[in-house]
Each structure stands twice: as C-alpha cells, then as structure tokens.
Design a protein that fits this description.
It comes from Deinococcus phoenicis. Belongs to the glutamine synthetase family. GO terms for molecular function: glutamine synthetase activity. Helices cover about 45% and strands about 15% of the residues. By secondary structure, it is an alpha+beta fold. The strands form 3 sheets. Strands 9, 10, 11, 12, 13, 14, 15, 16 and 17 form a 9-stranded mixed beta sheet that branches. A hairpin with a 5-residue loop joins strand 10 and strand 11. Helix 12 crosses helix 16, helix 21 runs antiparallel to helix 22 and helix 22 packs antiparallel against helix 23. The radius of gyration is 28 Å and the shape is globular. About 0% of the residues have low confidence.
Length: about 725
C-alpha cells in the first residue's frame, strides 16, 4: 500500500457513521454537572442532619461522621442507578501519574436464586484493591499486596459513560496498609490543609473574621496533538512511546505562524464539541478551545476551581480527549514532545489562593487595604519560589518533559518569576523608599496609608518565564502535558504555606511591638523583596545572556535534566519542609524519588529498544531495498550513481550508529535504579540521536514507496 492511498484513506475514514445531534445552546446549561453527584443533589436525598454533617466535611474540612455513611451510600447508589450505572469503582491516582479503578457490580445474590442491588457505607468509605502492582518506591515489599482506597468527600462522585453502560466513580485516596500515601491525591489534600493553616492567621491580622477558610485554586490549560488514527498505527514509535523517534523535518512546519488561533478544521471542531459536552456533564468548566502554535496542535482550558477538584478534572480531561478522538478517526497525543523540531505541549497551571467567600488573595484590588494584602501575599510567593527553586523543578521532572523545557515553546529549566514592569517598579520603589510618582499615578511611599492602584495587567505577558504573574494569579508554565498536576500543586501549596507562615510571624512581631499595619507590611515587603528579588526576571528567558546571569551572577539553579533535579527531593531541608507541614514524610519522599528514577529509566529504556527495533527491521531494509532498485537499473547515469553512493553511505552510518545503540541498550549501567537512569540519559539518549540523524537523512533521499513510516508531512496536517 503506497502512501498516496494512505492520505486518501485517512481523509475519508474519519467520518462518524451516525453523528450524535448537538444539543441546542439552552440545553448545555442543563447538561452541566448532570453526571455529578453535587451537594445540591445530595441535599434532596439526605436528611437535614446528615446533609449538614456531610457539608461540614466537604466545605470546612471537619472529620467525616461514619454514622452517615450508610445513608450517603444509599443516596449515591440510587442516584447512580437512575443514571444507568451498573457498577461502582473507587477512582484513585496511584504514583503512575494516571488513574486507576476496579469495578464492582451493585448486584449481589441474595441466596434464593435472586439478586438485589446493594452498596453499603462500608463499601463507600473504604476498599481494598490489590496494591502489589502499583509503584511504591520501596514503601512495601512486592509480596505485600494490601492497600486501601478511602473516600474523598471533598471531590464529588461522578458517572463515567461508555458505549454499553455507565459506572459510578468515587474519588478516593490510596494508601498502604501501614498508612503511607501511595497516590498523588493524599499529599495534595494535606498541602491544601497546610496552606489553610498558614494563611488564615495572616488574614486575621488583615482583619478577616474568624472561621475564614483558605484554599488554592487552579485552572490548568491542556495542550495536545491530534493525528490520523491510521497513521498512528503505522508508527511503532508512537504506539510504544507516545513520540516519534524518527522523522525528518517537512518542507512546511510552524514557520508560517498561521496555525495559532487559526480556523479550527471541521473534523477537529466536531471532536472538540463532542469532548466538551462530555466534560460539561462531568461538571468540568472548560472555557477555551483553539489551535495552538504547531500544526495539528490544540488547547483546551477550564476556568478556576478548587485545586483538589481541578486535579481530578485534569485527569478526566485527558481521558475524555483520548477516548473521544478515536470516534473521529484521530488519536490524541499528550506526550510533551511528540514531534522533534516543532512545539511541544505543556500544561500551564494558573494558581492562586482564595477564601471560602471567594476573595482572591492575589487580586491587586482597588483600595489601599487590598493593595497591602496583595503585596504581602505576592511577596510570600516570591520568597517561596526563590527558596524552593529545586522543588518546583522537581515537580515537573520527567524524561518526556526534558525534551521540551528550554525549547522555544517552553520556559527554561531555570526557575524565575515574571512580575511585569509596573509591579516590578512598585516593588523597586518600595525597596528604595523613593515613594510615588504623583497622585494620578498613585502615591507610593514606604509606610504610607495611601498606596496606588496596582493594575491587574501590570506589564506584557512573558511566554519564556516558568512562573509568571498574569493579573491575579501566577502561571506555572513548566508542567508537562501528560503529567498529573497534583504534585506541582502540592509543592506550590507547601512552599507558599512555609513562606506565608514565616512572614506572618514577622508581621505579628511588628504589630505586637506597636507598629501600624501599613508600616509593618511595607517593611516586610521591602525586606522580602530585597532578599529574594534575584528570582525576578522580566526579560528573555531563552537568551544565553540570561543563563549566564542567572547562574553566575544571581546564583539561581539550572537543573537542566530531570536527573539533575531529582536527587534534591530528599535533601534534608526539603524533607524537613514537607514533614513540618505534614504533607509527606521522609519515607514517602524517598519512595517518590525512587519511583521518579524508575519511570525515567523505563521510559528511555523503552525508547532505546524501540529505536533499535525500528531501525533494524524497518529502516535498514527500506534503504537496502532502494539500493537494490538503484543497482538493478543498468543504464549509465551520474544521478543514479550519486544517489546510490549517498544512500549506501547513510546506510552504513545508520548501521554503525545502530551497533552502538544496541550495546548501550544492553549495558544497564549498574544495579541501582539511579545508576540505570543515569546510564540511559548519558549513553542511550545520545546513541538514539545518532541513529535518528542517519535515518532522518535517509528519509530525505529514499523513494517514498520504500519508506516504511508515515512522515511528518503526513502526520502533522490534520483536516
């Protein structure tokens, strides 16, 4: 089958046989959260005391009353079966970065040949999935299979539908039988509680009432690629690794800059609409969709939610995108760098803090009081990022994200903060004590009770910054498109809690010493900014000058690869930080470090062996076949002779590189997992690059009918 036929086939075969009619606009509002067991829905199904008790757990973090579990379980089962669910599952997030589920039927035999639907409070609160095959990083031996899932009431249950039915999904945490967290959700919940404990005392000093609760909020933008399903299965590298291990650059890529925000192709728009309707039913507030920079690349973005719920929703967004794409003859690629030479995909985490009354603590505001509060919490974030650059880098570390960080679509591995020119100027003036710029612009004097209005958009956006202030939130741009956002948010919550706690102690000491609030805040903001402004950078994060300045003059870390960053996770100060706030124990941190090494090694090891297999069984035979065709032509021709010489030389070059890769694939580098990880980084990845370079040059000279892989020209342009 030649590739011309492939192109025609891929263009034809996407159509859905019987596309579902799209609901009218007014129905979309009714659809939203229709497959979510909301508190409002539970209110109609529970007694007032039971509902009040559950609501206190969900909204104020009070301990769950086990006495209400049976009534909640009955309401949940009844609602789910009304929605068509036949099974339920504890839905959790193990340390694979994905989600996991074990389905159980509501139907139970009653002993007389009949069956009835049952679901008890005990089954709701706790389950015991086999934990032996999930990563534990040494928290338990392989033969110790016991693990527990426990209901998380703060994240609502929901219905996941499939072609022949539906399942009730109950968000849960996952722990070992000795109590260590084996998941991403548990430390996220702990970090949220830590942030609340740290921030509320500060708010009280600013006049907030007792009982105020604080949590982090998040909106995570998801980038992804779409390619034709037919081509996907013709690329063993995409099937096995999620990225193309071979592929010469096409004549046209993203250099015309005409794809970004361009008209969305009809097939893609149909897919997007279908996916969005499913997400609406799951209560996921997706707001934005558009073409991204690279051909075949797109983005979907929800609006703010509580971070715990947002993390659950991010996992669901990835699942729905992957599942829905197949209905349209497409495959959704979530790898950070599926195509070399074009933009990769990230997951920008827009993070802020908010009270239970809806007040955004990173909103500059219009009044002096709001300005003071904003500058205090903004300074805490600056302090947190400067002191814990390593943890932020570790939180986005992976073999796949290493291909993206530092490229032209992603921030560098150096963690810095973009504040914008006006906000930076305000802080610079506070630091120098110069005061303001006239009453129209706002009078800014250290300790003055009249602070200027701080614009929400205090400067242009900076796409090269890994951590940018964007009006009323910080955008952490370094997260990878395929990763769970739970750990990056856990880190953010924890380091900001630490910074706020420290600044609050300073503020209280000044107030107890007789200082007025605005003077005390001004002094703290000035001192904090002076100590930590080295991390503030509003320029071009890609420039070589910045890299030199950051490392040599400012002393910032440049942990270029994941293996440069991961060892710092268990540094004594990091263990002390997480243990101080009860987020992760030293043992849990060591386990996560071990798992990160293990996943890194296995990822690159699979890529190395896949590269070897494709080169040996597909590309070398293709080159040999083309050489045989050239040799079969008996007519003297300088063009044929030159082509044959070039192909033969590249084939030998590919063969030699392949021998080196084969040797490195078999040399594991040591017995310890960190030794294996370093081996594949230092030896397998370079050997893979050499094989690819020879193969990609061959792609440009071997006849199309011989080349065994769909090319970038065919893969990237989805219509």
């Amino acid at each position: 089958m030649n590739h011309d036929f492939d192109v025609i086939s891929a263009a034809r075969n996407w159509r859905v046989d019987a596309p579902a009619p799209m609901p009218p606009a007014q129905v979309v509002g009714e659809l939203f959260a229709s497959d979510v067991l909301t508190l409002e829905e539970l209110k109609t199904r529970l007694s007032k005391p039971d509902y009040k008790s559950l609501r206190a757990t969900v909204e104020r973090g009070e301990r769950l009353d086990p006495a209400i579990a049976d009534m909640v379980a009955l309401a949940m089962k009844t609602w789910a079966m009304e929605k068509g669910a036949t099974h339920y599952t504890h839905w959790f997030q193990p340390l694979t970065g994905a989600t996991a589920e074990k389905h159980d039927s509501f139907v139970s035999p009653n002993g007389d040949g009949l069956a009835m639907a049952t679901f008890s409070g005990k089954e709701l609160i706790q389950a015991e999935p086999d934990a032996s095959s999930f990563p534990s990083g040494g928290l338990r031996a392989t033969f110790e299979a016991r693990g527990y899932t426990a209901w998380d009431p703060s994240s609502p249950a929901f219905i996941m539908r499939h072609a022949n039915g539906a399942t009730l999904c109950i968000p849960t945490v996952f722990a070992s039988w000795t109590g260590e967290a084996l998941d991403n959700k548990t430390p996220l919940l702990r970090s949220g509680e830590a942030l609340n404990r740290a921030v509320t005392p500060a708010l009280h000093l600013f006049g907030a009432t007792l009982g105020t609760q604080v949590g982090s909020s998040l909106g995570a933008e998801q980038e992804y690629f779409l390619i034709a399903e037919e081509y996907f299965y013709r690329r063993p590298d995409l099937v096995m690794t999620g990225r193309t291990l071979f592929g010469a650059q096409p004549p046209r890529g993203q250099e015309l800059e005409d794809h970004y925000f361009g008209a969305i192709p009809d097939r893609v728009l149909s897919f997007m609409t279908d996916a969005e309707l499913q997400l609406y039913a799951l209560g996921i507030p997706v707001k934005t969709r558009h073409n991204e920079v690279a051909p075949g690349q797109f983005e979907i973005a929800p609006i703010y939610e509580n971070s715990n719920v947002a993390a659950d929703h991010q996992q669901l967004i990835m699942q729905v995108l992957r599942n829905t794409a197949r209905k349209y003859g497409l495959v959704c690629l979530l790898h950070e760098k599926p195509f070399a030479g074009v933009n990769g995909s990230g997951k920008h985490c827009n993070w802020s803090m908010a009270t239970d009354a809806g007040e955004n603590l990173l909103e500059p505001g219009d009044t002096p009081h709001e300005n003071l509060q904003f500058l205090f919490f903004c300074s805490a974030v600056i302090k947190a990022v400067d002191e814990h650059q390593d943890l932020l880098r570790i939180s986005v570390a992976s073999a796949s994200n290493d291909h993206r960080l530092g490229a032209n679509e992603a921030p560098p591995a150096i963690i810095s903060i973009f504040l914008g020119s006006e906000l930076t100027e305000i802080l610079d003036r506070l630091e120098s004590g110069q005061g303001g710029r006239g009453t129209e612009a706002g009078l800014l004097g250290l300790g003055s009770s009249v602070l200027p209005p701080i614009p929400r958009h205090a400067g242009d956006r900076n796409r090269t910054s890994p951590f940018a202030f964007t009006g009323n939130k910080f955008e952490f741009r370094a997260a990878g498109s395929s990763q769970s956002i739970s750990f990056p948010v856990t880190v953010l919550n924890t380091i900001v809690a630490d910074a706020v706690q420290g600044l609050t102690a300073e503020l209280k000491a000044k107030l107890d010493g007789g200082a007025d609030l605005d003077t005390a805040v001004g002094e703290i903001v000035r001192a904090t900014y002076t100590r930590h402004k080295r991390t503030v950078f509003n320029g071009d994060g890609y420039s070589e000058e910045w890299h030199r300045e950051a490392e040599q003059e400012r002393g910032l870390l440049n942990l270029r690869t994941s293996l440069d960053a991961i060892p710092h996770l268990t540094d004594p100060e990091n263990v002390a930080l997480f243990e101080k706030f009860g987020v992760l124990t030293g043992r849990e941190l060591a386990a996560r470090q071990e798992i990160m090494y293990d996943i890194y090694f296995k990822t690159v090891n699979i890529e190395g062996e896949t590269t070897e297999h494709i080169a040996q069984t597909l590309i070398l035979p293709a080159a040999a076949g083309y050489l045989a065709d050239l040799g079969a032509v008996k007519i003297p021709s300088r063009a044929l002779d030159a082509t044959a010489t070039e192909v033969a030389g590249l084939t030998d070059e590919l063969y030699d590189a392949l021998q080196t890769l084969r040797e490195q694939n078999r040399a594991l580098g040591g017995d310890e997992i960190h030794e294996k990880a370093h081996h594949v980084r230092d030896h397998v990845l370079p050997a893979m690059r050499e094989v690819r370079q020879a193969a990609d040059r061959l792609e440009k000279v071997v006849a199309d009918r011989h080349w065994p892989l769909p090319t970038y020209r065919q893969l990237l342009f989805v219509k």
